[in-house]
Design brief:
This protein is mostly beta strands. Helices cover 3% and strands 39% of the residues. The strands form 12 sheets. Strands 1, 3, 4, 5, 6 and 8 form a 6-stranded antiparallel sheet that branches. Strands 9, 10, 37, 38 and 39 form a 5-stranded antiparallel sheet that branches. The protein has a 5-stranded antiparallel sheet with strand order 14-13-12-11-44. The radius of gyration is 27 Å and the shape is elongated. The structure holds 2-acetamido-2-deoxy-beta-D-glucopyranose (2 copies) and copper (II) ion.
Length: 654
Amino acid sequence: MHFVALLLGLRLVAGIRITVSDAQAINPGQNAIDQNNLSLWHSQYQPTVGFPHRATLDLEVATWINGFTYLPRQDVTGSGALNGNIGRHDIQISLDNIRWTTVVSQTTYADTKTLKTETFAAVNARYVRIIAYTEAGNRGPWTSAAELGVLLRSNSPATTTPTTPTPSQPAGQTSHLGKWGSVIQLPLVAAGAFLVPTSGKLLIFSASGRTDFESAKGFTQTSTYDPTTGVVTQREVRNTQHDMFCPGLSLDFNGRAIVTGGNDNLPTSIYDPLTDVWTRGPDMRLRRGYQSSTTLSNGRVFQIGGGWVPPADRGGKIGEIYDPTTNAWTLLPGCPVTPMLTNDRGGVFRSDNHGWLFGWKGASVFQAGPSTAMNWYGTSGSGTQSAAGSRGTDGDSMCGTAVMFDATKGSIFTAGGAPHYEEANASNRVHLITIDAPGGRPTTTALTSMTYARAFHNSVVLPDGQIFTTGGQSYARPFSDATAIMQPEMWDPQTQKFTILPRHQIPRTYHSIAILLLDGTVFTGGGGLCGGCATNHLDAEVFSPGYLFKSDGSPAKRPIINSLSATSAAVGSKLTVTTDIAVTKFSLIRYGSATHTVNTDQRRIPLEAVVGTGNTYTVTIPQDPGVALPGYWMLFALDSLGVPSVAKTVKITL
Ligand SMILES: *[C@@H]1O[C@H](CO)[C@@H](O)[C@H](O)[C@H]1NC(C)=O
Ligand SMILES: *[C@@H]1O[C@H](CO)[C@@H](O)[C@H](O)[C@H]1NC(C)=O
Ligand SMILES: [Cu+2]
């Protein structure tokens, strides 16, 4: 509802543009979108231009619409009052102003002054045009209009999440594959997002443009999505003078988003969830775009790579560290980028992009990819680096995914990616990496592959340890939806095999994201951000995994966490949890952030529970802040069937 009002207020009045086939000079096309019923567009009559006459509305960004409105001229009464009223016509839509689809074909308006509204099945369109073939009263070859407009499809909140517990549940629930919710409209391409403590809203961003990144710099378009209400808001962030497209992105110990570089390649922007305020942090020492960053066990933020910046500045993007207490960046000359480069044919523009970084014990960083070479980085003093072997027989896997799905065991799942950033076949290879002491040799095992080869996909760990991999394409080509994979795959850590899941509606390829929400569903959105192209996706879909359903598809009864002994707890401390029914497992999943396949914030900790009386349980947070990386986490309780509760948020502190 909010979103519709916003669109009407901001876009359809201010942002809409019109072009017409022809017009009499005193009645230009602009008059048909000026919200003034008494002015009109009139086809040229001196000298007369014959049929057909066309008017094309440009909605500025691809928009979900399901109707067209035509208000005939209202300017005069009596003779001439109906002159130019449109009779027979077509309504067509387009994403690129080149290829058109007819949504209303050869219908005829009545020869009256009243508002005409035609509806059609919802379509995603940037351009909408009416082609007039006749005049409703056959008075002459004219076309006129007081106002032209479109109907916006209203936004529905994610409705698939079961909220009504059923009274009884059969024992031995068989597995359900899960369900997708309806498409959610967003005002921008969701190229990046992070979960905001403690509301559980998503803060989403694109670039300075909502559908393109090449226009202006110096500011960023953002949006929020509230999973509980479906409300979408829109906000332009100008005060940090930072186009946060293609940045490093990490959530710190206080749930603040540290966003670095990208399209504006020096600034740091910091979002504070407690105040909902963006502030400009210190500039980085090196210009970076497409670097990865990760929060460390001592609260600092490390980043490396980022050669996606103007030619003179490519290469040599060594480690750098941000200290929130001094609010300053320091270069780490002991953390060279060379050992983690891929052999991308794009050279340093590409070879240091999107590192698979994990903040680990003793303020170390494990780099698991995308290069086949893996490395340890130490961050004290001027930094250290040591080789950690290669990822088995895996090749370079640019824009693949890596997820720490069991931090207590140091278990990392990796999937897909391609040998080159673009114009390369993706892989379906999957590896399990287990790390322990910093500097030590990890074990690496090749696992059963995904069914689909993917690059530009996203992988999300769920409360029960399964990993949901969605989107991507089998041939890596930015800004194309060709070879898009439309079916996700679920990896089961017990069987180490994949199950194909139901299709989603919209392709999610380059610049798409996926992120776990507090209710155990997964938000996935975006794809595109390529200006006037046809692959901008200003929308999202929410997947409700099978654990939320009984085998017949009805909602599973979910356990409820009734109380938690504390909402903030130090590493190594205990939490007492009371649930409404008996549960068997608990897990913690750190609030996630996602952009360009990278999510260095999400990680999962399975928790052993000591059972007390009356559905009371005591769980212990791991002692090592390299494992239980401080910051905001989601605590889930799972029943014996694996059905998770909605999470309670816990802030883990040092
Ligand atoms: C313009 O016409 C429409 C449709 O008849 C009407 O709803 C609207 O109130 C009118 N606006 C003005 C300013 O007269
Ligand atoms: C991708 O794989 C196909 C099929 O194996 C092959 O024909 C093609 O040459 C490959 N393309 C590239 C760019 O490697
Ligand atoms: Cu990008």
